[in-house]
Amino acid sequence: MIAAQELHTEFQFPQEADTQLSSDTDLEDPDVKNAKLGKGKAGKKGKKAPGEKGKGGAAKGAGLGRVNGHHQENGMENMTLFEVVKMGKSATQSVVDDWIESYKNDRDIALLDLINFFIQCSGCKGAVSAEMFRHMQNSEIIRKMTEEFDEDSGDYPLTMAGPLWKKFKSSFCEFIGVLVRQCQYSIIYDEYMMDTVISLLTGLSDSQVRAFRHTSTLAAMKLMTALVNVALNLSINMDNTQRQYEAERNKVMAKRANDRLELLLQKRKELQENQDEIENMMNAIFKGVFVHRYRYLKYVGWTMHDKQGEVRLKCLTALQGLYYNRELNTRLELFTSRFKDRIVSMTLDKEYDVAVQAIKLLTLVLHSSDEVLTAEDCESVYHLVYSAHRPVAVAAGEFLYKKLFSHRGPEEEGMPRRGRQSVNGNLIKTTVFFFLESELHEHGAYLVDSLWECAGELLKDWESMISLLLDEPMPGEEALTDHQETALIEIMLCAIRQACECHPPVGRGTGKRVLTAKEKKTQLDDRTRITEIFAVALPLLLAKYSVDAEKVTNLLQLPQFFDLEIYTTGRLEKHLESLLRQIREVVEKHTETDVLEACSMTYHALCNEEFTIFNRVDIARSQLLDELVDKFNRLLEDFLQEGEEPDEDDAYQVLSTLKRITAFHNAHDLSKWDLFTSNYKLLNTGLQNGDMPEQIVIHAMQCTHYVILWHLAKVSEGSSTKADMVTLRKQMRGFCLMCQSYLTSVNTTVKEQAFTILCDALMIFSHQIVSSSREQLEALIYTPDSSLQAELLNFILDHVFIDQDDDNNSTDGQHDDEASKIEALHKRRNLLAAYCKLIIYNVVEMNTGADIFKQYMRYYNDYGDIIKETMSKTRQIDKIQCAKTLILSLQQLFNEMLSDLGCNFDRSSSSFCGIKELARRFSLTFGLDQLKTREAIAMLHKDGIEFAFKEPSPQGEGNPPLNLAFLDILSEFSSKLLRQDKKTVHLYLERFMTFQMALQREDCWLPLISYRNSLQAGGDDDTMSVISGYSSRGSSIRSKKAKPASTGKRKLPEEESSSCSTDAVWMNREQNVQTPVMMPSPHLSSTVLRDPKKMRPEESYMGVYSITSEQQQQPLPPQQQHHQTPMDYNTQVTWMLAQRQQAEARQQQERASMQYAKMRSHMQHAIRRSSGLMEDDEEPIVEDVMMSSEDRLEDLNEGMDFDTMDIDLPPSKNRRERSELKPDYFDPSSIMDDSVLNVSMF
């Protein structure tokens, strides 16, 4: 038995062998064989004397097709196994069966033949004799064969050219697979054949002769593949046996068969033993051939470049197991030095799972040696702590922690655990240094989240952080700089937020997850500890850094994470009083918006009615607001006195007080102080005088906006009176008019503020305010009039769709650097998004979006995503109106081009090509489902056609209309039309055309020609499909057995006489290129042509270009009527048709009647034959119908009424149209029945 741990590469010829083999054979049925597995194992280790072996082998081999291991076929000379496989005349299955029979008779001779097979397949001229096999070691035999090997040529069977050797290679591989498959039930488990073969292949794979190495390795690979299939079969049998065993055991005692249970149990045991043996064989091949001969790690390193992410992932996980073993570190140095760069580059792999494992592998490399990775290697991993993908960031955080924080010197052993002089204190300073060096100060939350899992204890050491901020440095210790203190406060705030919220920062993760009971307990404990620590320390920190706006802003956010009950239970009321005093001082010292809003949010967090501290905090807040409002009213009265110009000091006092009130009004209801009157007065004065400082106007607008919103919140609760509703309505409308007036201000910042507030107010007080059962607010709905909509749109066009270099006002004199450009672009994007929301929610007319949509191409990089999303949302609201808006935007661009270039512009100009490209982009936004956008696309074409013919030519009659070139742009949407809708659109187009237009061929008329061609696209395909569809339907009719004919009525004689459709005219047109372009095409209209002699002049035209009664009765617009000359047009067309048809009409009718009768006779005959119809009888009918002569084919087309059939399009399209499309009354196929031939066509 081959063991995975001990591979025996030597084999000897046994001195004794047993010829009493098992009576079962490997050629039996697998199920029967599985039941007899015990027999093969019982006798496979038997031994006998050499004399007995010789006798038995000679006696049993006399009657077989092999003598001494050689084949005999039809009296031919003896051939070796190699020669048989090489010739390939015998089936591999037969060759293997003969060898198995020989092995059962004398396994030594058969095995010797197999050994020589592998030797000779390598190209060696020598052979292993029975004496050599019996007495020589494996290595000695291989050495002997090497001496006899002729290496002069260098060729051997696997590398030789020619069809014979190419076939030999495949036969060689097939032989090994079939051999294992046929021996899988007993022989491979006899601990003799497989041991010998594996030992031989292992030794040959390590030979110095390339032919031995190549051949044996290929044989080992095929042997391994075959063993894998055997293992798979064993696994399946084991599962089946286990399932049978469980089913039998679960039966009731009376029906349970104990004998069957024992047999199934024994069978499962034997299968498990066989499975173990197969696994040992595969391990022996893998370790003896591949691992031993081929340096495994080298291939793993190369495979890390594989294109498949899963392969790269498996390589990294396999290497992690090796690097985790410290004993292998020294032996991996060569591999590390060679493939380190590749591993480092894989940290940026496009597959996040691969990147994570690459970082983890580098972390293990750090354990082996700190000198392996250079500083550049580490820095490439450090920045990944700011990755948006959390698993990558966490792995990078672990790498950073191992590199910077895990090494402790002997001097740190006696240091305290917490505090400024503690180990954590030094590590916190290291974290601050790293944060500052990364220069990503706005991403402190990302750094904390990356380190949270591996350095959570360090980040929760808030005592050490407070000590570093408040305590004086020790002698010789370097104090933190102002910049470092700011970074430490930010990291401390992020750590507190992470501990209390227990979810990653914004942009990392998919949302909040459900916390486990343990995580909830940890969260509560951390929050309690944070409150106990910072309730005492926060007033001290605010007092120390009260003049630093950035530090104070971060510190004031800490109370949002407090457990306020601890102020009472922990008897910390005095610290609360100290905190409130510090917040008041901060409000009095600062005018920065961020600081004031942080103070406002802190009061909002502390003013919680659920806690006992509410009254104390509410009193402090009310006192502060009373003082601020009184001061503001006093200052405002002096500031607005008539006849006096306010100085800068008065303006600053008003502005600073207004800033504080506005910041608090954002989070607190200040309605009782009536701030609307004072702010409205301030805004009105500024509007009248025009000299109000812009910051005062901006904050007055914002404060008034907050007043209205708080009033709306109160009214929405339902506790207000009717007077409150009336007051709010008057205040809201007056404020909107005030903001509208400020849209014309000379100051850009003021206009931006007015625009933003107007958009918000219009959204809030739109028709959606009554949703969610709030019908009582219907009186507050405010719909902007046309003037306000126009001013909002003009603001967007003047302040958003501008070049970057022209945006000088919005940067406020900042340096023209990249940061200021990004900030200005972000502001413009917000302005555009605010206006687009008005379009999406139907606050303003949708057609105002035309001015936005037409900028799609020009400003694609800046606003493309916003405009595209707006188009998508508007299409969901109203597809038709959205399509009209899109075509309106193209019309506006076309008119602008005409005003710039004149009416004689070049269609190859950049302006025209840009409009056409924009139309192509618009067309792509409609998607692939033409049914959903059918009406919208049709309306788009209608508006486009009307626009093209709207204005007459300025050069007089006979010249193309002024906007005719617009049809070239409109053709970009033709592909979105359904085939049947193209007919309708084409008919609508012809209503605007004169006969002279149809005959024009000058370049100026090319847009009309190209547009008509786009509406006729696929006409040739449709014509040929008529013929093929006719043939296929005739064949399908005959193939249906015993199907009764339909009971539809026959056509009237008048109908039959007029059954010559325009298909014949179209077919004739293919042969006459001189036919005028206005000749009808069958895919546009399919109406009956009468005898010209019987038709009035106007009928001869109108019969071809038929339109509905609605279209006939619909009057044309006045500006279009002068283009139409109905009588002249019809008369000319009638003359052209009559000249051509009079001579052929009667002759065509006669031939049509004959062919129709003949066709009908054949079809009726086919139906009568019913189920007796044979396929051999079908062809003559097809030959009769599909005549070879072109004239006869034309007659057939004329005689048959194709209006009774659908055109045979490709299956997907035709089937879809038949099943999904609505009937179109312009399509004649939708009004015809399928009973003309008394045969159902489907």
Defining traits:
1242 residues; mainly alpha; 54 helices; disordered N terminus; disordered C terminus; cell division
Outline of the structure:
By secondary structure, the protein is mainly alpha-helical.
3D architecture notes:
- The chain has 54 helices and two strands.
- The protein has a two-stranded antiparallel sheet with strand order 1-2.
- Helix 10 (193-205) packs parallel to helix 12 (258-293), helix 22 (482-501) packs antiparallel against helix 23 (517-544) and helix 47 runs antiparallel to helix 53.
- Residues 1-77, 809-815, 1019-1130 and 1166-1242 have low confidence and may be disordered.
- It holds the Pfam family STAG.
- Residues 56-66 have a biased composition (Gly residues).
- Part of the cohesin complex which is composed of a heterodimer between a SMC1 protein (SMC1A or SMC1B) and SMC3, which are attached via their hinge domain, and RAD21 which link them at their heads, and one STAG protein.
- This is Cohesin subunit SA.
Topology record:
Blueprint: H1 30-35, H2 37-43, H3 50-61, E1 66-67, E2 70-71, H4 81-87, H5 92-105, H6 107-121, H7 130-135, H8 138-147, H9 163-182, H10 193-205, H11 210-249, H12 258-293, H13 296-303, H14 309-324, H15 333-345, H16 352-368, H17 375-382, H18 390-404, H19 423-438, H20 444-459, H21 462-470, H22 482-501, H23 517-544, H24 549-555, H25 565-569, H26 573-589, H27 593-606, H28 614-639, H29 648-667, H30 675-689, H31 694-716, H32 722-742, H33 748-764, H34 786-799, H35 818-840, H36 850-853, H37 860-877, H38 879-901, H39 910-924, H40 934-948, H41 966-970, H42 979-990, H43 995-999, H44 1006-1015, H45 1019-1039, H46 1053-1057, H47 1062-1069, H48 1097-1102, H49 1109-1113, H50 1118-1121, H51 1126-1169, H52 1178-1185, H53 1190-1199, H54 1211-1220
Antiparallel strand pairs: 1-2
